[in-house]
Amino acid sequence: MTEVVKIVDIDQDGRGVAKIGDKVLFLHNAMLDEQVEFDILKKKKNILFGRAITINNPSPDRVSPFCKHYNHCGGCAMQHFSEESQIEFKNKSFFHTLKNLGQVEPDEKIKPIFLEFTGYRHKARLRVKYVARKDEVLVGFNERLTHFLTDMHECKVLPEKISNLITPLRNLIRQLSIYNKLPQIEFASNQERDILIFRILEELNESDIVLLKSFQEKNEIEVWTQSKGPETVKPLFENINPKVSYILRKRNLEISFNPSGFIQINPFINELMIEKALDLLEPKNEDIIIDFFSGLGNFTLPIAQNAKNVIGIEGSEVLVELGKLNAKNNNLKNVVFTFADLFKIDENFYESIKHANKWLLDPPRDGAMALIQGMPDHIRPKRIIYVSCNAATLARDANILTSKGYNYQSAGILNMFPNTSHIESISMFELNE
Fold first, then answer.
1. Do 4-62 and 123-241 share a fold?
2. Given this model, what pLDDT does residue 433 score?
3. 231 in helix, strand or coil?
4. 165 pairs with which residues across the strands?
């Protein structure tokens, strides 16, 4: 007889929590108070990881996953949550993390910002694997909790056009001479140009090039290749423009980017996030504003449309140069992009930025502790907007900011990554006078 457990909690990754004796189970596809049958995927001492396979008393918040690969593919975690319950879960989890890890609570909770739950992902890295025993190629994402590749034929979080290409890509790659020397395909789109970057470990022959050209023309996509490091990423055919950009429509800004580099995967939420950041930041023509971790200027350039001066500070020299190019191309002359390692900061650095009265922070998952912890009392900006992709490091940094005299005025989530447990958020801190 299959064992049945009751789900007594949901963890921060959206997994159901149950107990068997002294063992704790974390189960994918399980919801609070459900009684489920399950199988085990991974064991670690007294902790078991698995998935619910039969639901005896479905939660009222449960829906049928829209993807038939959901219980095997590790790409999504919350398709069995209704859209409303996904947002509610992330919202509660976010504020719970702030309170319990950071001992902080904002004065105001910003209403969650969200849009579509499918077709949103315009940047992705697809694994490719030749399976000799089946003599076929797989394209997609890893199975849940394994290094095996999911045998999938669609992915509905990708744009429909790209999802529909997974099977044709499988067939195409099997015909190539390097079918077993092609480990991944990176996808990037600006909603007009759909780029597929084939990572190739051996040179293509003439027959391969003919096949790829035919695939490109038939499916109206762009074939790019990467043979070694990021500097080798380029279009395979000469008629493709190597310069790629996306448009911030509400701001009439065009931002150049590298298809293999970092951009926000959800362009629709990205535009709403920028507008929310500007609402909170309130850039005025007398403000000098610093955009830390500025990247290629996603926030920097919109801020510059209303501020006196903006300084974008970034730890990648490649992105600094892209930022400079984007400022020039958009005729924004009040912007400076500069390089700095924002995880190693000395007193001279703070002195160089002391004239700024507002900051925007958009750090990686590690957060911005080095930057804010070393901030001298006489160089504290009046207002700080903090965009975060990790609630735990935000909670830590928010605690530091409040200890330095800032009031945590407002915070809220943006559903940048639907159907996953990842949480993007935005916060505002105001210096107490």
1. yes
2. 77
3. helix
4. none
CB within 8 A of 106, min separation 6: which ones? 98, 408, 409, 410, 411, 427, 428
Task: Read off the amino acid at residue 350.
Answer: Y
Strand bridging mode 35-44 / 47-55: antiparallel
In the set 67, 76, 155, 389, the catalytic residue is 389
Other residues' Cβ atoms within 10 Å of the Cβ of residue 192? 9
CB 412 within 8 A of CB 92: no
Is the domain 87-116+266-431 a CATH 3.40.50.1970 member? Answer: no
Nearest Cα residue to 190 out of 305, 270, 118, 115: 270
What is the C-alpha separation between 326 and 35, in angstroms, rounded? Answer: 54
Beta bridge partners of 199: 184, 226
- pLDDT (tens digit per residue) in 297-328: 999 999 999 999 999 999 999 999 999 999 99
pLDDT tens digits, one per residue of 342-398: 999 988 999 999 999 999 999 999 999 999 999 999 999 999 999 999 999 999 999
The C-alpha atoms of residue 63 and residue 51 are separated, in whole angstroms, by: 16
Q: Does an H or E element contain 234, and which?
A: strand 234-235
Tell me how far apart the alpha carbons of residues 379 and 398 are, in angstroms, rounded to a whole number.
18
Nearest 5 degrees, angle CA 270-CA 191-CA 155?
A: 85
Verdict on whether the full-model pTM lies above 0.90: yes
| Tokens describing residue 277 | 């950041």
Judge whether 155 counts as a catalytic residue: no
Residue 156 dihedral angles phi and psi, to the nearest 5°:
-80, 0
Residue in the block written with tokens 């943006």: 414
Taking the C-alpha atoms of residue 108 and residue 411, their distance in angstroms, rounded to an integer, is: 7
Query: Can you name the CATH fold of 4-62?
Result: OB fold (Dihydrolipoamide Acetyltransferase, E2P) (2.40.50)
The residue among 271, 304, 302, 281 whose CA lies nearest residue 429 is 281
3-state secondary structure of 128: strand
